[in-house]
Amino acid sequence: MALAPVSAPLSTVDGFVKQFLQNLNFDIGVSLSASSRNDQYLALAGTVRDYLMARWLDDQRRQNDLQAKSVCYLSAEYLLGRQLDNNLLAARLTDIATDALAECGIRIDDLREMEVEPGLGNGGLGRLAACFVDSLATLGVPSIGYGIRYEYGIFRQTFVDGQQVEQPDAWLSLGSPWSFPHPEAAQQISFGGHTETYDDRGVTRSRWIPGWNVKAVPYNYMVPGYHNGRVNTLRLWRAVATDAFDLRIFNSGDYEEAVRAQTFAENISKVLYPEDSTPQGKELRLQQQYFFVAASIGDFLDNVLPGDFDLTNLPDRVIFQLNDTHPVIAVPELMRVLVDERGFEWDAAWAITQQCFAYTCHTLLPEALEVWSVDLLGRLLPRHLEIIYRINDDFLEEVRERFGDDELRIRNMSIIGEHPYRSVRMAYLATVAGAKVNGVAELHSQLLRDKVLHDFDEFFPEKFTNVTNGVTPRRFIRLANPTLAELITEALGAGWTVDLDRLRGLEAFAADPEFREKFAAVKAGNKRRLASVLHERDGLTVSDDHMLDVMVKRLHEYKRQMLKVLHIVTEYDKIVSGRATAADITPRTFIFGAKAAPGYAMAKRIIHLINAVGEVVNNDPLVEGRLKVLFPPNYNVTLAERVIPAADLSEQISLAGKEASGTGNMKFALNGALTVGTDDGANVEIRELVGDDNFFLFGMSEPEVEALWAKGYKPSDFYQSDDNLRSAMDLIASGAFSGGDRSVFEPILSNLLYDDRFMVLADYSSYIDAQARVDLAYADQDAWTRSAILNIARCGFFSSDRSIKDYIDRIWHTPPTL
Ligand SMILES: *Cc1c(COP(=O)(O)O)cnc(C)c1O
What we know:
Layout: H1 13-28, H2 37-66, E1 70-74, E2 78-79, H3 84-90, H4 94-103, H5 108-112, E3 119-120, H6 124-139, E4 143-148, E5 156-160, E6 163-167, E7 179-181, E8 187-191, E9 194-200, E10 203-209, E11 212-224, E12 231-241, H7 243-251, H8 255-266, H9 283-304, H10 314-317, E13 318-323, H11 330-341, H12 346-356, E14 357-360, E15 371-373, H13 374-380, H14 382-403, H15 407-413, E16 416-417, E17 423-425, H16 426-433, E18 436-439, H17 442-452, H18 454-459, E19 464-466, H19 473-479, H20 482-492, H21 506-510, H22 513-538, E20 547-552, H23 561-576, E21 588-593, H24 601-619, E22 627-630, H25 637-643, E23 649-652, H26 664-670, E24 674-677, H27 683-690, E25 696-697, H28 702-711, H29 715-721, H30 723-733, H31 746-754, H32 760-779, H33 781-794, H34 800-812
Helix pairs in contact: 1-2, 1-4, 6-34, 7-8, 11-12, 11-14, 13-14, 22-33, 23-24, 23-30, 23-32, 29-30
Pyridoxal-5'-phosphate binds at residues 123-124, 127, 553-554, 635-637, 640, 662-664, 667.
Keywords: Carbohydrate metabolism, Glycosyltransferase, Pyridoxal phosphate, Transferase
Organism: Microbacterium alkaliflavum
Catalytic activity: [(1->4)-alpha-D-glucosyl](n) + phosphate = [(1->4)-alpha-D-glucosyl](n-1) + alpha-D-glucose 1-phosphate
């Protein structure tokens, strides 16, 4: 190996080799010959980070000079996925790094496998935040993503006898080369204590006398824009004990107590709550929420704004986007800072605050609308509770002025709920405070206005808007599906990665047999790649000649994995009952990926059932291998990147009116899978764009769901009247999938029959019909391929770049500053 010249820049192979070896020797402290793969990975990551760092520093300086309006994206979750390839791609270093490592005798693929993805989110909400920071950087929008650096991210899922067992995700244990701490920029965050009033030159003011505090230490992640030299910041906060806190106790001579205090403080950023859609109202969770938003607001005011900034003009410099209700405690926090610390009059502070926040709602499920008990909130944040009461009093006064003493309306709109216990309704607080409130798909935004927040829509109609979610084409096409990306570039030229509407150009190619053949080869290659990943990772076998039918997303009753299970059992039942022979069945491999919240018993039972059905179906000789059920554990971004490009069929089968948007649905369509889906969330928009001929629609519409619910949903009617359904459910009930034990899955069946809010049985027959249409369509491979290409061509709308542009136009008004 030749020694690189001293001055070779990092963007040359020689320069990269030199920096890599230097990092290996002096940062990691090993020689190349003695280094482990992890050492090499860390040195590689460090080299990429060095390259980005120079641009990051430049950008910091430039943004500082410009003093443009910034977006502060506040999100309790960022489901980032692996960083190495994304950063190499953005910085155009992939080939250089590959060659440089080859010169050192290292295969970059081996190092890729060393990276543990930062799983700092549960599912779609956290992944959306990760797509958005990518698009913000790529579009050159001044912005900072703020969140929490959980020491343990989403649990690692394993299966023992088909049942989920959670393992801690110690993602930091082998080093975290992508972030750097800035202890000198720490913020002190207070909790507890009491409030008091005092006389300030004749004016009575309130102040908070906190009981305890912790230090929030920022860890910066560099977020490179794609090929634009831009590097934005994702700032995640870690909790550590404050020195003062320690000292006081140390001085009292209680060493053990001081250590306990340290642990207590650090608990705040210890672990991500693994609940998706059903918050548990735990005190530590409220601590996390306040911890990160207070640190973020403090950071922006103290460190990003110039020292002499007049906060009256704050709305010209920042918009805080609230990603769901998790950061909503930021609203009373900004009020507290303005009124108690910066001496603003209440009304002036409120006028500022109302322009500085916007709120994204992510749900339609009532149980997902976060509330905090007044008791708990008052104990942890007494001053904030007072502020919330005052905001509510003023707001309800305005409602009275407009609507008179309509007590029912007042009660319904109050930020304070009374039943079953006194609580703060965080979604209402966000709606009252936010300049804008958006849903995440057209249907969802409409349902927010019509139902969830109807009274508020009547009161502030101008606040409500929609921004349909999107996904980043850098990660979900370029990185996840490089052969498709090449094919697209070959057809359309470069540029589509940052202008996804250009995919429209593929429409013409859908009619070209040669292009279709190339596309089919890409899909086949992705299936082989997935087969090899699943073989290596889990010892699973994927056959080349099967349709890949994929349902990957969090396990939740509303997403209706059970409907998928009933379809599989129906197919199997046809064979074992002699109604069909295996030869009649289209060969299909069903792939599931799904984590269940550890406390969500029904979701865990469903996981158990899926594995149990797989165990039987996969091993029954009558099936002749024509049906396969695979459930690789631990679905995460890394697995998504392998599974989605290989899929033929995308399962998006939630009950209409329950899925806010979905983003998995977009990833599949953009990778040329056809969707079988309900008219729910963004499925509606996907279907409108790709056309009914290229989408398998089934199930009740949202108004039909409402009508059936109002009339009285009787699942047993569906069970009694549908022979296939009855037979499939009876097969499960017989113990066929539980070694003859009839009790194991009984709770699932009785739930479906007597207590199912998500109406699985009502949509069963329509779903089975849709699957028959899928089989028929799949039989004509060439026509299927054409539809797949049209799905890609018509889904450019679902780029998260478009979402961000919509946020800029409709909510933020923060032009790019490239
Ligand atoms: C995209 C994504 C999700 C969201 O999927 P939905 O089908 O929209 O629920 C969840 N988890 C991971 C790992 C993802 O990449």
